Amino acid sequence: MTLPPDVVDRVRSVLVAEGQTPTAADVARALRSDGVLLGADVLLAEAERLHGEMSGAGPLTRLLRDPLVTDVLVTGPDEVWIDRGSGAEPVDVRFGSDDAVRRLAQRLASACGRRLDDASPYVDARLPDGTRVHAVLAPVAVSGTCLSLRVPRRRAFVLADLVAAGSLPVGVVPWIRAVMAARLAVLVTGGTGTGKTTWLSMLLGMCEPRERIVVVEDSAELAPDHPHVVRLEARPPNIEGSGEITLRDLVRQSLRMRPDRIVVGEVRGAEIVDLLAALNTGHEGGCATVHANAAVDVPARLEALALAAGLDRAAVHAQIAAGLDVVVHLVRDRDGRRRWSSLSVAERRDGFTVLVDALSWPTATAGVEPGPGLDRLRRRLGEWAPVGEVAS
């Protein structure tokens, strides 16, 4: 059964006027007060549905509760997709109209303390429960309001979880542990949706409990299982165009907070200059994620970001070579599987920095292959380097 729109509007107005977030019981009470006559079961179902529309994620609520769902994507009132870790798949969830999708997007943006309307038609923010919200309104979104929700992990992954899922060869585990124990500077790289944030959270969870980790993010997503984490989040400008706090501002502030490790959730702008400076001035064990299609592309990606921020090419490569130790690269196979692909070390050649594979896993069915950078990695790990041959 679907309630008439005028009834829904009246109930919504009554509950909004009460000035607090309604519960399902409040919705049921308002329906009865409006004279709606329904059986107990139907009334409960309608109350739950309206409650979801008014204070939750509406028709998307049940999808977000699925522990396997990592992303919920709405591209139109009749086009809802989810990702359970094997690529996007359509689901039988419908909105009544594009206006319903728009209202949901605006309500979620409001819950994040952000504005979403014709004057500001897109938003990227985080809900109190950690869910990341991105929305674009029509006509910027040509086919109608687009809404993307990134669901936070219910718990932090550990290396054993990745091995069990077939996303990491067991023989690589000692090397990953050694990288973190030796406090090497690490970049986690990969394309969109390869699991960079999940990996970085897991790596930080492996740090010594006494270490003080200062995390800087554009939109807070990292949730490492660690007892001493300070989290800083950037802030966009307000409606008057003032009050902005950038990642670069926060990286500079983090240097004064006595960090044992400085972490940038995602490097994609001028903050690369300050991060490289930190890695070259005694701040060991720094970590970050960077979008890159392949590990060999990482120096060029960092160079492009730093050049745009005013750093000259020679200085960029000198600082990358001196400050960056290893790159953990992730891929997403055509079947949707997210997995580790390589562990590379930075090396200076003819004035430029290149990445050389120490360990690689070309395909999910192949074994782990030692690379030309393995000896260099062993030297950097020192006493922490695993003993013996590399196991597949």
List keywords for this structure.
6-stranded antiparallel sheet, 3 domains, single chain, alpha/beta, Rossmann fold, Beta-Lactamase
Account of the 3D structure:
- This protein is α/β, with parallel strands linked by helices and 392 residues long.
- It folds into three domains: 1-55, no CATH class; 58-152, Beta-Lactamase, CATH 3.30.450.370; 159-384, P-loop containing nucleotide triphosphate hydrolases (Rossmann fold).
- Helices cover 33% and strands 21% of the residues.
- The chain is built from 13 helices and 15 strands.
- It has helices spanning 5-17, 24-33, 40-55, 61-65, 98-111, 159-164, 173-181, 196-205, 247-254, 271-279, 298-308, 313-323, 374-381; strands at residues 71-76, 79-83, 88-91, 122-126, 132-136, 146-150, 186-190, 213-217, 229-233, 261-264, 287-291, 326-332, 338-349, 352-360, 369-370.
- A nine-stranded mixed β-sheet has the order 9-8-10-11-7-12-13-14-15, with helices on both faces. Strands 3-2-1-6-5-4 form a six-stranded antiparallel β-sheet, covered by helices on one side.
- Strand 10 (261-264), helix 10 (271-279) and strand 11 (287-291) form a beta-alpha-beta unit.
- The longest helix has 16 residues, at 40-55.
- The N and C termini lie far apart (57 Å).
- The mean pLDDT is 85.
Topology:
Blueprint: H1 5-17, H2 24-33, H3 40-55, H4 61-65, E1 71-76, E2 79-83, E3 88-91, H5 98-111, E4 122-126, E5 132-136, E6 146-150, H6 159-164, H7 173-181, E7 186-190, H8 196-205, E8 213-217, E9 229-233, H9 247-254, E10 261-264, H10 271-279, E11 287-291, H11 298-308, H12 313-323, E12 326-332, E13 338-349, E14 352-360, E15 369-370, H13 374-381
Parallel strand pairs: 7-11, 7-12, 8-9, 8-10, 10-11
Antiparallel strand pairs: 1-2, 1-6, 2-3, 4-5, 5-6, 12-13, 13-14, 14-15
Helix pairs in contact: 1-2, 2-3, 9-10, 10-12, 11-12
